[in-house]
Amino acid sequence: MPGGAGRGGRAVGKGRSDDETLTKRQPPLRSEGANATHGRSGSSSSVSRKKGRPGRKRGARSTGRYPFVAWINKYLRNCGLADETIKERRRRLTRIFHDLQLLESDGKIGTTNPEKMTENEVGAFVDSLIARGKKGKDFEHDVTALNGLLKNANNLAIESLKNRYPAKFRKSIKTGRYPPLNGEEFNFIIQGAERVDPANWYKMESYAIVVLGLASGARHKELKEGKVHDLCLRSGDEHYHIEHPKGEDSYGETRDPPLRPECQPFLRKYLQKRKEMLVKRPDNEFLFPALRDKADGKLSSNSITRMVRFVGQDAQVVKLDLHKCRRTFGQMLLDEGVSIEVVSVLMGHASTAMTEKFYCRRRQQQASFSVRNIWSKNVPEPTPKTMPDVKNPLIDKNSWNAGYA
Questions:
Q1: pLDDT tens, 52-77?
Q2: C-alpha dist (Å) from residue 152 to 35, 73, 142, 398
Q3: Distance CA 90, CA 76 (A)
């Protein structure tokens, strides 16, 4: 009926047939093939669709929402560094990432993606380090870590910036060895250890770390990884076996430095207390265990650093750290007449140059006394056969530099 109401209350247009109306209401037919199933009612699609942000296509080389973190994982996975170095590098790069995020939120840089960072963005980061007062080795380590990451992403922005502004990246010049503990400070620590109440486990373990560092010259890692059976206090054979030295996968060698006599009584006291504390966990073999949770682990690097600082405050020794303990071990041996070659071996150095440049060296008074002693006794000049078989950079050297160490 022209002008009449159609089914469902809809009016049929004038001049249009019912067949034409029905044809327009039907949905268009989909072509057969891979997409045909999308239009079939009552059946699920056979073609799965990836869920994701609408309008965004993720490529094969996509690094996700945080490209910097993805590149950290990729870089450290293939860097070939030691485990402890990888942990330290990850912490440093994570902190750098947070610094870059702050710069991005302040509008000072446009991206934190290591592939896309430009010289201007790297320069803004370097300027922020300088503005915060970072300098010396701390500044250099941050720049080196970021540079390594960017190079891994085929980005030479830092290298280019170094060429343009070399003054900003000038390396700090070390002007000599840091001092060891003096005799009074050494006695403060030994006396403080003797006064420790065995019931105070935290203080007991803290002093044991420092005392063993002074007794053996062991590094931070070498103390952290030590096992209880590595510390030998058998009479006449007191030593600390270092199974995991620095560079153990390349140049490092295991060693057994003897223990200083002044330190042995407290170390015996510590081993007895450790045995009592771990009576319920005899399977924990670490010399310095972490008594938390299941008490089956070892102290973390940060925990050891805090404990050494605690000992420094308790014994009133300024800026105490394990490097200072290590320098003290070497210098005391030299002062007692042990040769630099022997000290270098006990400290785990590849050559005497490292020992003399950064740790310890024979004092002027001792050198003068040795020369006068030789002149007075007419000691014969040593021959190549009597010289120690130790790599010494001063042997076969055409010229001698008075400022060598």
A1: 555 555 544 566 789 999 999 999 99
A2: 42, 11, 16, 41
A3: 8
The overall pTM is greater than 0.85: no
The arrangement of secondary structure in 67-169, i.e. its CATH architecture, is: Orthogonal Bundle (1.10)
Q: Which of 402, 388, 385 is nearest to 351 (CA)?
A: 388
- What totals of helices (H) and strands (E) does the chain contain, helices first? 15, 4
**Residue 118: what are its φ and ψ, rounded to 5°?**
-100, 175
Contact 82, 249 (CB under 8 A): yes
Show me where the domains of the chain are located: 67-169, 183-345
- Cα–Cα distance, 70 to 94 (Å, whole number): 11
What pLDDT sits at residue 138?
86
Bridge pairing between strands 231-232 and 239-240:
antiparallel
pLDDT in tens, 372-398: 778 876 555 544 444 444 454 444 444
The Cα angle at residue 373 between residues 369 and 378, in degrees rounded to 5: 155
Show contacts of 191-198: CB within 8 Å, 24+ apart. Answer: 192/311, 192/314, 192/315, 193/266, 194/265, 194/266, 196/266, 198/269, 198/273
Please count the other Cβ atoms lying within 10 Å of the Cβ belonging to residue 361: 21
User: What are the beta bridge partners of residue 290?
Assistant: 297
Q: In a 3-state reduction of DSSP, which class is residue 76? A: helix
C-alpha dist (Å) from residue 296 to 14, 208, 230, 318, 322 = 89, 19, 18, 33, 25
Q: Which H, E and C letters describe 294-332, residue by residue? A: CCCEECCHHHHHHHHHHHHHHHCCCCCCHHHHHHHHHHH
- Which three-class secondary structure state does DSSP give residue 5? strand
**Amino acid, single-letter form, for residue 189:** I
**Span 289-313, average pLDDT:** 90
Backbone angles phi, psi at 251, to 5 degrees: -95, -15
Query: Cα–Cα distance between 283 and 277 in angstroms, integer?
Result: 12
> May I ask the CATH class of domain 183-345?
mainly alpha
CB atoms within 10 A of CB 127: 13
